[in-house]
């Protein structure tokens, strides 16, 4: 966040401490002091203080040279997940869908400019990317992200696209705000999104939005498949109908429980970014 945009209550040291935690990921499970300082744009002295504080609190382990997160960091997200009943409602339906189509399926919400996986039922088929609950991707390049973004107000879509990193991830990635804006309009009209090898070569994905009892889009469910096994047409013909039926059952349960908007609220009020 730019310094001029910060409110008087903003605690920069807290922001930096969270940045240190986020420096660790699946590709970088272990980091040196220099790695953390460079990733977070901190001095070595500042990075050392943050890391050793996290060690004292039990969130980081070190052997004296390398640092890694401990399972205790899961506590930081547990309060949100334990109070957020949408994954609990969706998971039985995802189980049934996966058993029917023999492909993985996930539930995602919008968090800042990313989508975050909050429930996932995998199959034994392995995709290149390792995806688990908590995995994040830029929203504009994913099927789940696009079906959520497509239902935001036009001015909010414009604001998000203006600040998005539109560098192509593959040769097929839509890499201009104009092309993405047109695609989001199409997704809004048709009610689903298919992303064809834009996030990763060889990966196709279809997603459908999940609405709460007020009709607001609060999440999305997707099915990713190998492009070699599934054409775009077969995804639309064979996978979209059971996916739509699954989401309809999830939405019926949401109407019964009265759950409204936690995913929507998270996307608009959280300060979390990649």
TrEMBL record:
Mind telling me which SMART domains this protein's record contains?
Answer: HTH_ICLR
Q: Does the keyword Isomerase apply?
A: no
| N-terminal signal peptide | none
> Which residues does the UniProt record annotate as the domain HTH iclR-type?
11-71
Q: Enumerate the spans annotated as IclR-ED domain.
A: 72-256
Cite the Pfam families for this sequence. Answer: HTH_IclR, IclR_C
Has the keyword Transit peptide been applied to this entry?
no
Source organism's superkingdom?
Bacteria
Q: Which InterPro entries match?
A: GAF-like_dom_sf, HTH_MetabolicPath_Reg, PcaR_PcaU, Tscrpt_reg_IclR_C, Tscrpt_reg_IclR_N, WH-like_DNA-bd_sf, WH_DNA-bd_sf
Name the keywords, alphabetized: DNA-binding, Transcription, Transcription regulation
In terms of PANTHER family, this protein maps to: HELIX-TURN-HELIX TRANSCRIPTIONAL REGULATOR, ICLR FAMILY (PTHR30136), TRANSCRIPTIONAL REGULATOR (PTHR30136:SF34)
What NCBIfam families does the database record attribute to this sequence?
Answer: pcaR_pcaU (TIGR02431)
- Designated name of the protein: Helix-turn-helix domain-containing protein
What organism does this protein naturally occur in? Streptomyces ureilyticus
